Amino acid sequence: MNIEESTYWEDQVIKYLNGELTTSEMIVLQKERETNKLVNDLYVLNERLYKGIQSVGRNELQERLKQIDEKLPPVQKVNNKRMTWIRLGMAAALVLIATFWFLSPNKEPNNIELFDTYFKPFVVISNGATRGDTISSNTLDEAIKVYSNSDYQNAIGLFSAAISSPNQDENMYLAVCHLALDQTQPAIDILSAYLKSNGSFENDARWYLALSFLKQNQLQKAIEWLNTVLDNPGAGIKPTKLKETLK
Amino acid sequence: MNDLFIVSQIKQGELKVFDTLYPRYRDEFCHWIGKQSGLDEETCKDVYQQSIVILFENIRDGKLKELTSSLKTYIFSIGRNKAREHRLYQVRYGSTSSIVPDTSNENDIDHETREEQFETIEKSLNALVDPCKGILMDFYYYKKSIKEITERFGYKNTDSTKNQKSKCMKKLRSLVKDKIKAA
Predict the structure, then answer these.
(1) Residue A36 and residue A47: Cα distance in Å, rounded?
(2) Is the CB of A60 inside 8 Å of chain B's CB atoms?
(3) How distant is the Cα of A234 from the closest Cα of chain B, in angstroms?
């Protein structure tokens, strides 16, 4: 490979890592990597350098924030007046909910109602992860966008096209889409596979499995799964409360 | 300084904006995340800083094109996920470190190898004589255009900047290779 060729392929690799290649250019690069060892070596080295630079940049930026932090006083508690109002508001809301519940003719909620009370979609947020494959990365971005607009039907299509392994965290979104559309069995299958392959959001997956069985009226299984879930009210995961209600 | 202005400043690479943004939500964030996840103050601050870095990268990469919620909600949502990652990491590895390694690219290489590689690259980058480090960071991390880099470093034209960038990358590559060989 002469210098011109080497420069050309290096540019293509950098463009690829920056997400600037078109689909056809990506295919050409991929084919070249498969047949030309030098291009593949160039790719591997540049990818490492690129990711290394990203890591260094991230650390530098955090260091800059640490310097800003050093000039600030220690963390203060939030405004007490505001907290008082928040607490008062919460107390008033609790009184209202209790009154409605007391006056309600049907005090024993059924499983579907319970499901609706506890089911909240998995939180959509990008963690800044760099995905290797730009095609599926674009589809995933689109899927998450559609999901955040609660368009679960279309999100299912997009997630299914982009997800390549059972331990990919986006399986959580896919399962929740099915669950939101009352398709409990596909949700159970996806979550079980995700747990088996050691997906990162283990606790969330167990919680949604419990909710899936609750919706299927399989109370025993729901309780079994609830016993394995840790409370995380911040993420809407309240197994202790749900278990008490089920009892 | 409203949310849209802050986002537009970050888009333009105006890092000075962090002097205003960082203190704005720090205390409330630490109070909130501390209550939710039981993290201590130092770890809360780390999580907050990592959340701001992710906010920056999402804006830089065009993942955050327009705000559908307030900037505060966006940062707090990132923070909640970061805190969750932190807790998972502690449960899995029993680490008490406040820094959770970024594990988003670990399909093929294990933790330690990856950390070592980044360390080698970091050392090599720091060993570069200026303006090489600045050019490479500006281009590859801050994603500034060649034109902006040309203006910042006072090169004659964009071709000179491109040449210089190629030379810098070549230098970095050879430094990394040397360090790997020496190890």
Answers:
(1) 17
(2) yes
(3) 6
Reading the block at residue B13, the tokens are 């690479």
Structure tokens at A128: 């800044």
CB contact under 8 A, A19 and B61: yes
A148: which chain B residues are within 8 Å (Cβ-Cβ)? 68
pLDDT in tens, B17-52: 999 999 999 999 999 888 888 888 899 999 999 999
The verdict on a CB contact (< 8 Å) between B104 and A129 is yes
Q: Kindly determine whether residue A78 and residue B31, on different chains, have CB atoms separated by under 8 Å.
A: yes
CA-based end-to-end distance of chain B? 49
Report which of B139, B179, B137, B130 is spatially closest to residue B162, judged by C-alpha positions.
B139
State the average pLDDT over residues A39-59: 88
B132 touches chain A (CB under 8 A): no
pLDDT digits (tens, 9 = 90+) for B97-149: 555 555 444 444 455 666 777 788 888 988 888 899 999 999 999 989 999 99
Q: Which residues of B touch A126 (CB under 8 A)?
A: 54, 58, 63
ipTM at complex level: 0.86
Pick the residue from chain B with its C-alpha nearest to A233.
Answer: B36
A:167-196 residues touching chain B, CB 8 A cutoff: none
Task: Encode pLDDT of A161-184 as tens digits.
Answer: 888 888 888 899 999 999 988 889
B80 contacts on A by Cβ (under 8 Å): 123, 125, 234-235
Report the DSSP beta bridge partners of residue A232. A237
- pLDDT tens for each residue of A126-172: 544 434 455 567 778 888 888 887 888 888 888 888 888 888 888 99
> How far, rounded to the nearest angstrom, does the alpha carbon of residue B38 sit from its chain's CA centroid?
25
CA distance A93 to B150: 59
Q: Is A230 on the interface with B (CB under 8 A)?
A: no
Tell which residue, A144, A155, A143, A145, has the closest CA to residue A180. A155
* pTM value > 0.80: no
